[in-house]
Amino acid sequence: MSTTIDPWLLDRLVCPATRTPLRYDEAAQELVSEAAGLAYPIREGVPVMLVEEARRIDAG
After folding, report:
1. In the CATH scheme, what architecture does the domain 7-56 have?
2. Which of 9, 15, 21, 49 is the most buried (most CB within 10 A)?
3. Alpha-carbon distance values, 9 to 24, 38, 57, 60 (Å)
4. What are the beta bridge partners of residue 40?
5. How far is CA 54 from the centre of its chain?
């Protein structure tokens, strides 16, 4: 099930670890922090902005 994130909300959300902007990956349903190398899940349309719940992503 694909969910879209409100652009207004996306403009205001930042990575809790680095305080940098996030990129929305619609296919994976994640908010990606390139700076932290983390991807935060979106569950039932709600971003889970907890470092403990994020998955590590490859730098390359």
Report:
1. Single Sheet (2.20)
2. 15
3. 11, 19, 23, 27
4. 31
5. 8
Strand ranges for 1-60 from DSSP E: 23-25, 30-33, 38-43, 46-47, 55-56
Reduced to 3 states (helix: H, G, I; strand: E, B; else coil), residue 37 is: coil
| pTM given for the model | 0.89
pLDDT, tens digit, 9 for 90 and up, residues 1-24: 567 899 999 999 999 999 999 999
The structure tokens 């652009």 sit at 7
10 Å Cβ neighbour count for 30? 21
The confidence band for 59, taking pLDDT boundaries of 50, 70 and 90, is low
